[in-house]
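Quick illustration, no need to memorize.
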Amino acid sequence: LEPVFGHEHHDHLVCLKCKKIVEFRDDEIEKRQQEVVEKYGFSMEDHRLVISGLCRDCNTNRNDDRMA
């Protein structure tokens, strides 16, 4: 786990190939998560979002390999 004390909340994109991690914050995602919490009467203490996939560079290289 990443220490976040004193840091603004953010989420992550993680490349499964090169292991690059991109940190981002999206107010719409945060708003939607809060709506879900309220809809279900849930008391949220913490949350995290990690999206795993291929970064732009690895995805481009994969597409180039397919054309070769």
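The first strand starts at residue 11 and ends at 15.
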